[in-house]
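Hi P.,

Sorry for the delay on this. The queue was packed all week, but I finally got your sequence through. Input first:
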Amino acid sequence: MHRAALAALVAVASSLLHAPPVALSRPASGDPNLLLQRTADLGGGDTKDVLWLAATDGSALRPWIPGASPAWSPAGDAVAFSAPGVKGVEDVFVLPIEGERPFNLTSSPGAETSPSWSPDGQDLAVVTAVGISILDLAGGSETLADAEGGAGPSWSPDGAEIAYVRAVGATRQLHVAAIDGSGSRQITSDAIDHSSPAWSPDGDADRVQWYRPQRNRSLSL
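Then the structure:
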C-alpha cells in the first residue's frame, strides 16, 4: 500500500474515535470512497455497528448505514454487509448504490456474516451457523462441504476456489476448496491460529496470503 493511502486510512481510523453523529447519507455512484465499520456506544452496555464512508484522502467522514463486515462489489455499484434481520440475528444484506434500500439476501434462523463477493459479482460467500455458504443474488445457496465452522472466506481470482480457515483440533488452519465443496485441502498444520486469507492481487490463482500471530505469511499452493 502506498504511504499516502496508508496515512489516509490511519487518519480515518483515528477520527472515527471522535467523530460526532451526523445525518446518514448515500454516496454518489462512481465516487471513490473508503468504507469502514465503527461500533457506537449507545450507553448502558449497548452497542451498534455502523458503516461509515470517507473520501480516499480521509476527509468527509460520515455515517452511512447500520451494519458490519462491509464488502464492495467488484464493480463498486453495491455493498454487501451483515446486520440484524427481522428475526433478531445477523443476516446478509446487499445495498445497490443507486437503490432505495438494502435487500435481505438471507433469512435462515441462524446468523450469516462476513460476505465476500465472487470476482464476477454474481455470488457471495458468507459465514453461517453450519459453515460457509455460496449465495447468488437471486437467493439460491449451497453450503460448502467440509467447511463446518469455517470463517474468513476469500475467492480465488478465477472464482473457482475459496480459501477459508476452520478449527482443526485446538487451532484454526487455512483450507482451500472448490466452490462446490470438492477438493477441500488443508494448507497449514502448525500449532497456532491462522486467519484472514486473501489471494494474490496480481491474479495468481495459486498464491494465498493470510495472517498468523507476529507475521503475515504467503504460500504458493
